[in-house]
Amino acid sequence: MVYLWALALPTMVLVLLGRLAMLQIGAPDAGLGHQVVLSVADIATWGALILFAFAVLGGRHPRVWLVALVVCHCLWNFLELTSVGVLVSTTAYLDWPMLQILVEHPNIMVPMATVATPRYLQVLLVAVVVQPIVTTPVVAWLLRRRGRESSVNRPLLLVVAACAVVVALVFPVGVPDRHAGQSAPMGIAESMAQDVVRTVSGREGSALVGPARAVEDGPARDVVVIFLESTSRRATTLGDRELATTPHLAGLARTGADVENMSVVISHTSQATAAVMCGTWPEPVSENAAASSAGPSRVCLPRLLARRGYRTGWFQSGYTYFENDTEMFKNLGFDTVVGREDLRRTHGFATVNYFGLEDKAALAPSEAWLRRIPKNQHVVLGYSTLATHHDYDIPQSWIGSWVSDKTRNRYLSAVHYSDSFVAEVVAMLKRTGRWGNTDLLVIGDHGEAFGEHGLDFHTGVPYDEVMKVPAVFTGPGVPPGPVRTPASQVDVLPTLAKLAGFELEGTPYPGVDIFGPLGTSHRQQFFDCGYDRICTGVQDWPWKFIDNFDRKPAELYDLVHDPLEQENVAGQHPDVVRRLDASVRAWRREAERPYD
Length: 596
What we know:
Layout: H1 2-26, H2 32-38, H3 40-57, H4 62-90, H5 96-104, H6 106-115, H7 119-145, H8 154-170, H9 184-201, E1 212-216, E2 222-228, H10 247-255, E3 257-258, E4 262-263, H11 269-278, H12 301-306, E5 311-316, H13 325-332, E6 336-338, E7 351-353, E8 356-357, H14 363-371, E9 379-384, H15 406-431, E10 438-444, E11 449-450, E12 456-457, H16 464-467, E13 468-469, E14 471-474, E15 487-488, H17 492-499, E16 502-506, E17 525-528, E18 536-540, E19 543-547, E20 555-558, H18 574-592
């Protein structure tokens, strides 16, 4: 009774509140019954601890066991609250690799886990961590004064507790939205076990599909790629002419090529980076396979061109050790990787969020790197912006008046700030004498949702506020004018390789040269929502099909008559649904094969 009333019940209340918060993000369409099902793992974990407590507190050394149980509950509280904060901040679930980052780099993970945690959960954290430590000994002393003694079948309780642990471990597996319904300790344990299996078996990440090489086919040029973090096309002037957030990007589009229908493959930064720079299908799950020892499943553009004598560098103002991105960039073929942890001159640059500094902090290091390279040696130069990542905390001087909603206004202000960064990169290329022979791509990794379909952020959002991003090519090799044919991020590598003066030989890539003959042909654009079996689909103009697995019914939209995806017409076109569903299933088998 001491344990139940003083510790376990308050903890369970906290955990269930956290689970409710996570379900609103990870499984917003789950009904009450589905939410109850997704809470089974938490209830089983709680039940196991209760049964174990009853078994050990009535035996020898009850005070020692009581201390151990208090520590366990405090740890459970910490992991659950951290998982909520991480999910709200990044739309990623807390797992073993991320917990390692938390231990090794608390300077990034602690703000990430707490900046978006609802205030009431912070209060409950204090209440449930401090309250048991204070009240449990008092309640125990009072009960001893009353002469209560424990008489329980301890072996039986321990067996039942072990069974409850097994239920907590295996129940969410195969259940839709299982990450949202998985208790934090069990999710960490599962990812740790997977990591051990991959290491022991020697099967880590992807297996290279085959060799490839770049063969000279024209005058060689420099290649510069700027990734715009969490930037929807609709948030730019390109997507909304009345919205003057990106005048510099619009200017580049007027002299270059604006790909008006660029689709995201997976709405997660690392996977989008692999899709763009490697021209390959990322694994349609949350793990960053490109950061594993095996690397991405195809040879990436930096490595292809490095073999032709190019120097390669990646620069960003955010930390690169999050999700092991440092290894990913090296696997992509970048010989120089500079992130927040490598920046020495930080004075005068604002901290924009828990990931690092404002974007312009990366400019000086990249210019210094570029000036050290002879002008007759070509480069692949990559940047990733940061300001537009949640929680859009940019320098106050950049906050504008775009819309009435404060959060979205901050986001659009961050998009405007990122546009100024693009302008400064162009100015730097001109200063260094590189601009005249550089093909530049500015592209979004994914968009950001603000409730257009009842969803926020980007993971788990299959609609065009997330899946359509800006993509502007400019440079001497770029055919000017708008490109209206739908394209995918996997089309970028063959396009940039051709612009740089090279043809690809060897292993075929799934994408095509956007400006070549196949670029104007009809192609399907496949996508996935970022985590195991949340949603996936295909755009097959004019149709867009979304498979929600078992979370909710499939969706079909006619993009010609319904560009904002408001009317699901799946029931009216069963033949189209069956055809596109078969295409999506075949694509997922192809995308997953190198990672099996």
